[in-house]
UniProtKB/TrEMBL annotation:
<dbReference type="GO" id="GO:0007165">
    <property type="term" value="P:signal transduction"/>
</dbReference>
<dbReference type="GO" id="GO:0004888">
    <property type="term" value="F:transmembrane signaling receptor activity"/>
</dbReference>
<protein>
    <submittedName>
        <fullName>Chemotaxis protein</fullName>
    </submittedName>
</protein>
<dbReference type="InterPro" id="IPR051310">
    <property type="entry name" value="MCP_chemotaxis"/>
</dbReference>
<dbReference type="GO" id="GO:0005886">
    <property type="term" value="C:plasma membrane"/>
</dbReference>
<dbReference type="InterPro" id="IPR013655">
    <property type="entry name" value="PAS_fold_3"/>
</dbReference>
<feature type="domain" description="Methyl-accepting transducer">
    <location>
        <begin position="85"/>
        <end position="307"/>
    </location>
</feature>
<dbReference type="InterPro" id="IPR004090">
    <property type="entry name" value="Chemotax_Me-accpt_rcpt"/>
</dbReference>
<dbReference type="Pfam" id="PF08447">
    <property type="entry name" value="PAS_3"/>
</dbReference>
<keyword id="KW-0807">Transducer</keyword>
<keyword id="KW-0145">Chemotaxis</keyword>
<dbReference type="InterPro" id="IPR035965">
    <property type="entry name" value="PAS-like_dom_sf"/>
</dbReference>
<dbReference type="GO" id="GO:0006935">
    <property type="term" value="P:chemotaxis"/>
</dbReference>
<comment type="similarity">
    <text>Belongs to the methyl-accepting chemotaxis (MCP) protein family.</text>
</comment>
<dbReference type="Pfam" id="PF00015">
    <property type="entry name" value="MCPsignal"/>
</dbReference>
<dbReference type="InterPro" id="IPR004089">
    <property type="entry name" value="MCPsignal_dom"/>
</dbReference>
Length: 329
């Protein structure tokens, strides 16, 4: 049986149990239908949609088989191409879905990193704000200190000027006292001479002698007083000179202090300006990082949507492949 049929079949299929079962069903008079792969001229594969109908004799035994077949090779080729495309589409969709999920995971990690960076920059910005505020306060204090130092320097300069005036006045007083001392000496000498002349005059010069003696005593007292005054003025001049020297030393020290305060004020002002610039830069960086965080969040959402869409596409491709297989069967 089937000798002519075998020549159109693959030798491996002819030797298979499946082929034997095919003829056994027909031998039992069972109807068979389906798609079959056969080989035509020069071994070219041909797919047919065929039915095999056993014909029974008068004894109700099958004695021949009637075959109706249609060439469906183009349809099979199309189905294979569609299946191949569906499999490839499903594979690519799964790859895209996997990559999209990886991108979404990466962007989520990047978003978390951006949030951490944003938090760090906010802390840095807060620190810079504090530094800027402290620098501003220090700048104000330094300027106030410089102003006070300038006032102190001016006060010392006036003190030195007053000391110089005291020295000058003391010298002038000393000259006046010296003149008074000389006058007292001359008065004492004249009184002494007058007393001598009064003694020569005898009783007539007695009254004049008393007056001369009183004048001499006054001259001695004046001389003594002028010496005391001269001594006090000398001490005053000496102390004024010492005070003047101390004031000059203090003025030099104050000058150095003022210069140091001025440099410190300038440095603090520069620090304050730099801190304000850092403050502005930190705010710009924080804003940029926030924009990155927003962008990565949107990217993550988009990647998740792509992953979801490609997953659905892959599922649709699998369903298409199953539908083609069902249609083929």
């Amino acid at each position: 049986k089937g000798k002519h049929h075998r020549m159109f079949c693959d030798p491996a299929y002819v030797a298979s149990p499946e082929y034997q079962a095919f003829w056994q069903r027909l031998g039992r008079g069972e109807f068979d239908a389906g798609r079959y792969k056969r080989f035509g001229y020069r071994g070219k594969a041909v797919w047919i949609q065929a039915t095999y109908n056993p014909i029974f004799d008068m004894n109700n035994k099958p004695f021949k088989v009637v075959k109706f077949a249609t060439n469906i090779s183009p349809q099979i080729a199309l189905e294979e191409e569609v299946t191949k495309i569906a499999i490839n589409f499903a594979t690519k969709s799964k790859e895209i879905s996997s990559q999209a999920k990886a991108v979404a995971s990466g962007t989520q990690s990047l978003g978390a990193t951006a949030e951490e960076m944003s938090a760090s920059v906010e802390e840095l910005s807060a620190s810079i704000d504090s530094i800027a505020q402290n620098a501003k306060s220090a700048d104000s204090i330094a300027k106030k200190t410089q102003s006070e130092a300038d006032q102190g320097s001016q006060a010392i300069a006036k003190s030195i000027e007053a000391m110089d005036l005291i020295n000058k006045s003391s010298e002038e007083i000393s000259e006046i006292v010296k003149v008074i001392s000389e006058i007292a000496s001359q008065t004492n000498l004249l009184a002494f001479n007058a007393a001598i002349e009064a003694a020569r005059a005898g009783d007539h010069g007695l009254g004049f002698s008393v007056v001369a003696d009183e004048v001499r005593k006054l001259a001695e007292n004046s001389s003594k007083a002028t010496k005391e005054i001269s001594k006090l003025i000398h001490e005053s001049v000496k102390r004024a000179s010492q005070g003047s020297e101390i004031s000059k030393e203090a003025a030099n020290s104050f000058k150095k202090i003022v210069e140091g305060v001025a440099k410190t004020t300038q440095s603090i002002t520069e620090i304050s300006v730099a801190a304000q610039e850092q403050q502005t830069a930190a705010k710009d960086v924080a804003q940029a990082i926030q924009q990155v965080a927003d962008a990565t969040e949107k990217s993550a959402i988009a990647s998740e949507a792509i992953a979801q869409a490609t997953t659905e596409l892959a599922s649709g491709a699998d369903q298409l492949k199953l539908a083609v297989q069902k249609f083929a069967n």
